[in-house]
Each structure stands twice: as structure tokens, then as C-alpha cells.
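User: Some background: our group keeps a shared notebook of sequences we're curious about, and every so often someone picks one and asks for a predicted structure to add to the entry. Today it's my turn. The entry only has the sequence so far, pasted here. Could you supply the structure so I can complete it?
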Amino acid sequence: MIKLQGKRNSAIVFTDKLDKSTKTQISSLLREEAYSDSKIRIMPDTHSGKHVAVGTTMTVSKRIAPALVGVDIGCGMEVVFLAERELDLEKLDGMIHSHVPAGAKIHATPLDAFDLDSLICKANVDRERALRSLGTLGGGNHFIEVDRTESGELVLVIHSGSRQLGSDVASYYQEQAYRYQCKKQRKRTKQSYYDAKDTGLYYFSKSEKGAVKVKREEAILEGRLFDDYLHDLTVVTAFADLNRRTIAELICKQMGLTVTDRFSCVHNYIDTEHMILRKGAISARLGERVIIPLNMRDGAVLGTGKGNPDWNFSAPHGAGRACSRTEAKYAFTVEDYRRQMEGIFTTTANEGSIDECPMAYKSPGRILGFIDETVSDIEIIRPIYNFKAC
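Assistant: Of course. Here's the predicted structure to add to the notebook entry:
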């Protein structure tokens, strides 16, 4: 465990190793006045992200920068337990390739309905594309996997998010936050100018008077905009959940599979009931079922949340990256990648997904050594099939 002290807050990081870039991002968060009262806990799979460290959890009150959640609002996992003990994996793979669009692809027509009119920012999203995206995987680290439990049960696991809809909503609110903060800054600068002019203590030049120093990605929502963002974030999180369920139902229908049980985990969102932000982290409240994917080779961890308040009732959402995507593309070969995947049916272990190869992720032991404080009943399920979006 590492404790970081910043200018306005502190954070506990549940790991014993922290690289420089990740530490810098966490330290930046601790300088923000808006989050001075937040309880910040960083999960053991943490690594640097686009604007904030992946693995960040924090309590939220009245203000937030949408960039902390990011563009893939509601990204998470759908876990489906099957009655079948064996599958025709070649048939499954062909079905997924032909029926589940991956990458930037979407369906020709919508597979399901969703009420986009409930979005406050509905005029700023691509409605047609959003509806045609239901039942699609996306790219990056998204995947479809079949794992086997210790007792021989098969588990269909789907990792996907809110697709372009999440990006549209996140971008809209980040722009609103930027405009709002720029307006506040102009008023503040103007007032300071007149205060200084009245007292004769300081002379502001015209350029200083008009200057606005607001970083777009750090711009914060508050007041009505904050409430609107939380509302729309909740809608998009529900959309992402439906997206994963649509994929699962499509696979089960096409393959004639019987579902015996299911649950889901979300890892890019704000829990509006308890006001906890999780960026690359999952809820692990007492008795809550959790899944923590490790990598394409090693499968995933099933467990039960302990409801540990010191962890913000949270757990890691994965093993965490050991290197960046760019580094992985230069560090590993397709031959190495395929050797690591021997014994697991996959047709997507290729150049297009090499940045997602098992070697690009931290050792499972790095995560398993820390999570016993927040997760119990740990079981590792092993992959027999993997489809990785390229």
C-alpha cells in the first residue's frame, strides 16, 4: 500500500509499485480544489490513462470533470452461466464473426429499442448510430470469451461499453464544463482587474484582463450542469448494459444455449446512489458478485464483495496494463502471442490485437495478492475461447 499526499488531498494506492506517469496523474488529482473533500482510493491494477489514472475511485459531491469518467461511459462485463458443458467453438466463432459487429462496425438496422429521448442532451447525439450500435462489441480491450469454472461449468463473458453514444455524451458535457469554467474565469479576472484598479495595488494589461486559463480536460461541472450530467450518465450506463445483454442474447439464441444464471459489473461510471466515481474499477459491496478479467490467456476472477469502506466499496476491474499499446506493438511478436494462446480457441490473435496480448498485462499474482481485503470466495475461471476486437 502506498499513501500519496498532495496539495489539497491524499490518496491510498493499493499496490506496492507505482510507475512515474501513474503517480503523476494521481498527484494531479490531489491538487484539485474541487476534490479536496473526496475520499480517493486507487485500485491495485492502476496504470496511467488518458486524463486520469485507471483504477481511480473517489467519493463525489457537487462537482466533477466528465473526463474523469471518460468517453466509454458504462463500460463493463456481462457474465452468463450456461447449462451446456461443451460448445462447438468453431461454430461459435463463425457466428460471432458474422453476427456481432466489432471495431467501428454497427448493425444495418437496430436489434433492440432504447429510449434516447430520456437524454437531456439528446439533440447532441447521433441517435441512429446509437440504436444501430446495440449488440456490437467495439474495439480496444473489448472481448467475448467462454471460460470454464473449476466445476466444469461454462461461462460466457462479454466486455463492451456504450459505443459512440458514450463518447457523444461525454464530449458534450466536457465542452459544457469548459465553456462554463471559461465564463467563470472571465468574470473572476474582470473583477480582479477592477479591484486592483480601485486600490491601485496592481495594473492588469488588456491581455491579462481577457486571459482565460482553463484546461479543457480539467473543466468541472457544477450546479444544474452537474445534475444533468449525472442524469445522462445514468441513461448511458443503462444503454451500455443493454448493449452487452443484446450481444449475450444474440449469441445464446443463435447457438441454442440455455442460461442458468447471470450478473454484470460496470467499471466506468458514477454510482449515483452512493456517489462514488469508478474509473476502471468495480463495485464490491457486501455480498455483491464481481468479475475481474486477467488477460486472454489466464481468464478471470469470480468473487464476492466484502463491502470494505476503506476501499470505497470497490475492487479492480482487471489486471492492469504492464505496458502501453504502442510499447506492446514493438515489444511482442505475433508468434509469441499465439504461443501464449495455445490450447485456447481464437482466430483473433494477430497483428491487429497484439496490443491486447497476455504479455501486455500485469501478472495475475500482482492483483490476487491485494484483493483479499475487498473480495472473498475467489475462483479463477479459465478461457477455452476468446474473440478480441481488432
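Suggested note for the entry: The two ends are 35 Å apart (CA to CA). The longest helix spans residues 163-199.
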